Amino acid sequence: MPWAVSGLRLGRAWVSAPDPAALRARWTALTGAEGAERDRLFRPTRTRTPTTGAAALPGRRSPSTARFADAPGPCPDPVRVLRGPFDEQWLLPDQRLIDTARPELWRVLDEHQLFAVETPELLVTAHLPAGRLGRIRPLHRRPGGAEPNFAPGLLPLLGERYGGWVTPQDVLCWILAAGRPGLRGYEVPLTGDPGRWRAGLELGHRLLAAQLRGGPGVEPPRLPGGRRPYVRSAVQGWPDGLGYDAQTETLSLGSGTVSPVPPGAWEYEVQGGTRVLEAWFAARSAHRDPGADGLEALGPAEWPQAWTSELLALVTTLALLADLAPERAAFTPGPLLPAGALAAAGVLPPPRWARRPASVLDHQEEGPGGQFALL
């Protein structure tokens, strides 16, 4: 996957939140403020201030491309993003508010796109990754699922070697099953054994389904044996903490309880030993932290029911990934595809153009102040 992009740098935490209603409230508070108070709430950086001009994000109906101080416009509809490992939140899609928005990623963002994110554990998401997660590798270089982001000639070569049609998603599934962090980044061995390839695809498709939580139009995955986590008692008001009882497999949020929650889901960790469920809960309680101020302190007064539904899906994802972890750790690619075969097919080294974004400017994009670029 030669084309890789560094993560979005938001510059200010208040532009994203677990609750879209909180983002609209923050927009209202910011646009209603004036002078020094607006500057304080905005949290200016060297890249973005209320007087900085910025273009509209590709594919988004920007409220305005005038300077924010002159004409903020109406609140843009929040979009779903991956804010942390397995943590889906919302973002205000206004480039005037984001230090480095990576427009090249927004140009290829659609219902066909998937993003591989290089963390110690490779993450795959259908949502735009936003924040300090790691380098982002889109599956496709163009909208509509066109032009896979692979070295030219790779898919035909693999199809010839393995005796069948190989899709871009097949390769992504193989990466999930066989790829490992290495000294030069995320390293993916290619097997020379068609049998190992098929075994890796089977494992990779299960890993992908778990990470995507089913995906659009796909039945969400379930725990083995038909088990499903249920709300045993509803969350009332605001939970004062998150707890877990391993004996009863019960997750508690204040007076609310969810079960069964397998131990593997509760213990699932990422990036330096952080439990995913604890980090997920902390992100939703951040606006209530005594240190939160300004727009970041605006959030729901009571626990939204939608968050409980998200929690149930997250528990299932983590439990499935925990169950698959031993199988993935034991998976080996077998005899490797010779590097000479990749070179002979023109796959290696990938051409320089494959490392750059494709030209997808097939429509006008509004620049700062309503200007249009001459291309």
What does this protein look like?
With 375 residues, this protein is an alpha+beta fold. 30% of the residues lie in helices and 15% in strands. It is built from 10 helices and 17 strands. The chain has helices spanning 20-32, 35-42, 103-107, 154-162, 168-178, 194-212, 263-267, 276-285, 305-330, 339-344; strands at residues 16-17, 79-84, 87-91, 115-117, 123-125, 128-129, 136-138, 140-142, 146-148, 180-182, 185-187, 230-233, 242-245, 250-253, 256-259, 269-270, 274-275. A 4-stranded mixed β-sheet has the order 1-3-2-6. A 4-stranded antiparallel β-sheet has the order 12-15-14-13, with no helix packed on it. Strands 5-4-7 form a 3-stranded antiparallel β-sheet. Strand 14 (250-253) and strand 15 (256-259) form a beta hairpin. Helix 5 crosses helix 6 and helix 6 (194-212) packs antiparallel against helix 9 (305-330). The longest helix is centred in the C-terminal third of the chain and has 26 residues, at 305-330. It starts with 15 loop residues before the first strand and ends in a 31-residue tail after the last helix. 34% of the residues are buried.
* Helix/strand class: alpha+beta
Give start-end ranges of low-pLDDT stretches.
Answer: none
Give the N-to-C terminal Cα separation.
27 Å
Fraction in helix:
25-40%
Strand order in the sheet with the most strands:
1-3-2-6
**Number of H/I helices:** 10
Task: Based on Cα principal axes, name the global outline.
Answer: flat
User: In what range is the share of β-strand residues?
Assistant: 5-15%
- Overall number of strands: 17
**Secondary-structure element series:** EHHEEHEEEEEEHHEEHEEEEHEEHHH
What would you report as the Rg, rounded to the nearest angstrom? 22 Å
